[in-house]
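Please study the protein below:
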Amino acid sequence: MYDVIGDIHGEDLKLEGLLRHLGYLPAGRGYQAPRGRQAVFLGDLVDRGAGQRRVLEIVRAMMDDGQALCIMGNHEFNAIGYATEDPRNPGEFLRPNRGDSETSRKNRKQHSAFINQIGEGSPEHAAWVAWFRQLPPWMDLGGIRLAHACWDDGAVEVLTDAGWTPGKSLDDAVLLAVHQKGSDLEQARKLLTSGMELALPDGRYIEDKEGHRHYQVRLANWRDWANALHEVALVPAGQEPQIHGLALPENFRRTPITGAPIFIGHHWFKGQPRIESGKLACLDWSAAAGGPLVAYRWDGEEVLSNEKLVWER
């Protein structure tokens, strides 16, 4: 049985409180799971919070002891690119951070808390980046399926065909390929770790909680019942006018989720934690912005229930 845990973003105190709440006991640098259970982390362990090293220590220790599993979030993927030189652009990195462009400034700001705590270019930094490469972009545990932002069978197949699967580290060839703009591999990686996005018309943008402008809007493509864009567009409060008058994308699929339940994070939900449907739960409830760190205690059920959510504020 699994305890699936959402985005932590360096909130070590919330993580330790949640693990204790779930009945996990301190063991070495990590925690020991209750008998018959295992923790599963949905990625985005890093960036933002003050306890990033401690979060990483706990998760890695639990994985090494067989007490936990973990998939890759977009922030771990970004951390790899931030620290990997771009052979096609000497002096720059796969995730640009050396120049004075808006993109480089945004990337440095987003990753600054991690860099400041770990030490940019230090042996510890290199070791954590190498460990991030071991995290898979998706996981199918039979009874449940896990992806950081959304589950997509086609994207799973594309990455599998390229050799990036659970149990295999992200090698240099695939890393470069998933940074190739417009490639199928790039689109598959984005879908699983960052979700479906809709490009906004010229002049429109979404401003996030940190003041960054995004020229795409995230879509909750698992909401098969939706008939209007505002029902699937995930925009911060006050940003709704940016999607006014826009229609759903023509390729928006409305196929109900079948098979094993799906767990995702990534989307910074707010308010009272709740599942999206009996087949999908988002467990990111803005832990790094004053919200709770949320887990779902899965006991083999085929239909999810709000009663199985557990959280720590």
User: Anything to note?
Assistant: Helices lie at 12-21, 52-64, 74-82, 102-118, 123-132, 153-161, 172-178, 184-194. The first strand starts at residue 2 and ends at 5.
